[in-house]
Amino acid sequence: MQAAVKATIETGADYSIEYRTFWKDGSTHWAEVRAQLYKDRFGKATKLVGVSADVTSRVEAEEYQRQLNETLEERVAERTRELEQAHAAVMAEINQRERAEEQLRHAQKMDAIGQLTGGVAHDFNNLLMAVLGNLELLRKYVGEDAKALRLIDGAQQGAQRGASLTQRLLAFSRKQDLRIDDVDMRALVLGMEDLLRRSVGSTIVIRTVAPDNLPLVSADANQVELALLNLAVNARDAMPEGGTIQIELRQTDLTSSTVELSPGGYVVLSVADDGNGMSEETLKKAVEPFFSTKELGKGTGLGLSMIHGLALQLRGHLNLASSLGEGTTAELWIPVSTSVMAEQVFPISAPPTTGKPSGPKRILLVDDDFLIAMSSADMLMDLGHDVVEAHSGAEALKLFGEGRDFDLLITDYSMPGMTGGELAKAVRTIAPNLPILIASGYSELPPGLELEVARLGKPYSQDQLAQEINKVLASSRPIKP
Ligand SMILES: Nc1ncnc2c1ncn2[C@@H]1O[C@H](COP(=O)(O)OP(=O)(O)OP(=O)(O)O)[C@@H](O)[C@H]1O
Ligand SMILES: [Mg+2]
């Protein structure tokens, strides 16, 4: 204040000052003073004339506004951050949904291909069965004619190759006959080591990590072995200069469901190589049937398709991760077994079989396919049995209605009108002790079929047929209702 007075006296400028005062009650106030300098006629400063005002409320209002402006900037920045976060979250969600949709589309596509392949494979399986059956009988009739035998050999080999191809197609389309049992994956993997080493050759090192406290899984041991072999061969093919295959088992518990898997315990069999890897394009198509990048005649493109089908049929999942030059990891997820003890699905306590017929039997043979019915009937008659053919469940039941008596019923499973399972159920009410053999290329004896029946996988040879008949007749015992 003193400085301001001094400045006004010296320069003649208006006096203008704003200052803070503390009152006795402790409160703070602001004063504004404005004044003009008056001089006498000799030019000497005599007085200051002006006003003094209490501007506390104005100053406080200004201060409030200033603070408000400051925090406003802060609030805008804060809100912008929030919006950015929300945007990122939405984008992540969209990406995730797109990925899930892509997975779903892929699953649906595989499903559609599976249905188609399964249908075709099923029909082919039946046809090949007739071909193989007839060739087998023909072989007996031609006797010692070497040339004819060679021709039959060729035809049989061709048909057998076709049969193994259809088998793989059925595997892909989840219609293969599985023998589900409790499987110790560690024992399975360790048991395969030698075979795998021999299959991949000496330039490739196989490393196995198999912890010994894994739970049992619910699977078909043979098919899982085949899957492991296929994965190892794929890894070998991706490492022409040699490398390492790491085979690893681990247990994983899923607490929530994913696109592919429901919650629960799984044992994961992973096969990793450090080979060529796959491009994104190849990886997308790798499990499709007949997709192969291998030269003609080298790969059928059914290896991964089979494993994919097997995984689904086991309620598990095949997961592939790969990028070019980075190697590949294939994971087969198999659900942990829920049964306390291994429960045999089709308990047939069979004595060692000789393959020889146990005397002529009266057999009722049911198959909707005339060709197969005929060739199977021929096989049975060739084994010395009496055969009555029926071409539908209804026709078969009618024979029982007419009072016909049989020692054995052999029926196809998938037939229009009445399935082999339904026929078996109906027959059990008429002839409770009649042994029944269900022949099927499908694995799907559905869960509703609570019957103890013996199974015969299609296509079957005459020997297999004879063996199964012996087994089922030997174990025929009072049957649970
Ligand atoms: N470990 C791997 N590394 C690189 N590429 C792989 C690997 N496994 C599979 N692939 C690719 O996926 C394709 C399909 O594999 P899949 O096993 O189904 O058929 P394939 O091996 O070609 O023939 P097949 O197994 O019927 O003899 C292969 O041709 C290959 O391009
Ligand atoms: Mg393969």
Structural write-up:
The protein is an alpha/beta fold. The protein has 4 domains: 2-54, 2-Layer Sandwich (Beta-Lactamase); 62-172, no CATH class; 181-335, Histidine kinase-like ATPase, C-terminal domain (Heat Shock Protein 90, 2-Layer Sandwich); 362-475, Response regulator (Rossmann fold). It has 11 helices and 15 strands. The strands form 4 sheets. It has a 5-stranded mixed sheet with strand order 5-7-8-10-9. A 5-stranded parallel sheet has the order 12-11-13-14-15, sandwiched between helices. Strands 1-2-3 form a 3-stranded antiparallel sheet, sandwiched between helices. Helix 3 (146-172) packs across helix 7 (303-313) and helix 4 runs parallel beside helix 5. The radius of gyration is 43 Å and the shape is elongated. 28% of the residues are buried. Magnesium ion (MG) is lined by residues 230, 233-234, 299, 303.
Q: Give the total of beta strands.
A: 15
> Would you state the CATH class of the largest domain?
Alpha Beta
Characterize the largest beta sheet: strand count, sense, and whether it forms a barrel.
5 strands, mixed
Radius of gyration: 43 Å
Give the overall shape.
elongated
Widest sheet: strand ordering: 5-7-8-10-9
Q: What string, H for helix and E for strand, traces the elements in order?
A: HEEEHHEHEEHEEHHEEEHEHEHEEH
Tally of distinct domains: 4
Structural class: alpha/beta
Query: According to CATH, what is the topology of the largest domain?
Result: Heat Shock Protein 90
Mean pLDDT: 87
Ligand types: adenosine-5'-triphosphate, magnesium ion
Beta-strand content estimate: 15-25%
Q: Which stretches are low in confidence, meaning pLDDT under 50 for 5 or more residues running?
A: 340-357
Question: Could you state the CATH homologous superfamily of the largest domain?
Answer: Histidine kinase-like ATPase, C-terminal domain
The CATH architecture category of the largest domain equals 2-Layer Sandwich
Q: How helical, in percent, are the residues?
A: 40-55%
